[in-house]
């Protein structure tokens, strides 16, 4: 079993941090005894006993049977109470809105999908997001006071300080939109907002428990390309909360990107770019078909063995792998996780090509071999990640708790 990533401290002034460390350790390992928790967190037996008692009194943790006997007294096992609280996650993609309701253990209880309104104005989209929230809560039957809040995952870049979406791709006319405030007013719940790649990385960590402890780079492949960075179990957001905008690093070409610059990775690896390359290869004229539908058709063709579709995807995956090799070398991480709706039907094809390129180009592969894996949370990564933002904000151990900021 993997070791817990966080160690507690026995100083009384940081009890909130210790509580989060213990709850996170229980959640990561599913079922665990008090003795094992003390060993994994470094807390004294008395400190551990006090925290566990408080978590049980608050209804967040319950005793759940006994561990197998090892010759002495059988140890009582602890587990998180999934139904104690829930969080709703909403993911805004330029073409659709996805919503999920997550329980405290990170399990998906409800899902919802709808197209972005034809009138894709900020107010219309904000109203649609709030409707999705209310429908999920109503269908679940959960009491309002058991909903911790709403997580909102959106395409970057963001003005996090002012809770604004700056200039998302494919949403015409959006500029400095206070989307979090719009949704918060209509939903009647606190809203926390982040870019979709960072949210998906948090969701992967929650879903993966001990299997996603430590450090990794999560690559979100949707309408665009972004990465979420987790270092030592802490999400790295950067000074402006816009870390991970890999879609706009220069990839060595001269093709114009939607951002107005040339050579961006997204100019070659976004759904729109890949579809354009495929249509050029098969000499198919644009016919008004939505990009997502055309991309779905392309991926199904590749999954069925079509050579042209496969080649187009491999070329894009090669560029992606080249960019990720640089990211891995700079950050010194040993795991890359690929996720998002763009992988549907072709996850292994893309993973294998990216892994081959990264392995060939990454610095010091013998010192730090890099694993390239597909995500655990699937197509709904953005929405699951958005709900996980709320859970993470409420219950995960943070350095800021220790530092008092």
Secondary-structure blueprint:
Elements: H1 15-29, E1 32-33, H2 34-41, H3 45-57, E2 61-66, E3 76-80, E4 86-92, E5 96-103, E6 108-115, H4 122-140, E7 147-154, E8 158-159, E9 164-165, H5 179-187, E10 191-195, H6 196-208, E11 216-221, E12 225-231, E13 234-236, H7 266-269, H8 271-282, H9 291-303, H10 307-331, E14 335-339, H11 347-361, E15 371-374, H12 381-395, H13 399-403
Parallel strand pairs: 4-7, 7-10, 11-14, 14-15
Antiparallel strand pairs: 1-3, 2-3, 4-5, 5-6, 8-9, 11-12, 12-13
Helix pairs in contact: 1-3, 2-3, 4-5, 6-12, 8-9, 8-10, 9-10, 10-11
Quick gist of this model?
With 405 residues, this protein is of the alpha/beta class. The protein has helices spanning 15-29, 34-41, 45-57, 122-140, 179-187, 196-208, 266-269, 271-282, 291-303, 307-331, 347-361, 381-395, 399-403, and strands spanning 32-33, 61-66, 76-80, 86-92, 96-103, 108-115, 147-154, 158-159, 164-165, 191-195, 216-221, 225-231, 234-236, 335-339, 371-374.
Computed over alpha carbons, the radius of gyration is 22 Å
Number of strands: 15
Shape: globular
Average pLDDT rating:
88
Q: Segments where pLDDT lies below 50 for 5+ residues?
A: 1-6, 9-15, 399-405
Order of helices and strands: HEHHEEEEEHEEEHEHEEEHHHHEHEHH
Strand content: 15-25%
Count of discrete alpha- or pi-helical segments spanning 4 or more residues: 13
The biggest beta sheet, please? 5 strands, mixed
Briefly note the structural class of the backbone: alpha/beta
Q: If strands are numbered along the chain, what order do they take across the biggest sheet?
A: 6-5-4-7-10
Q: Helical percent range?
A: 40-55%
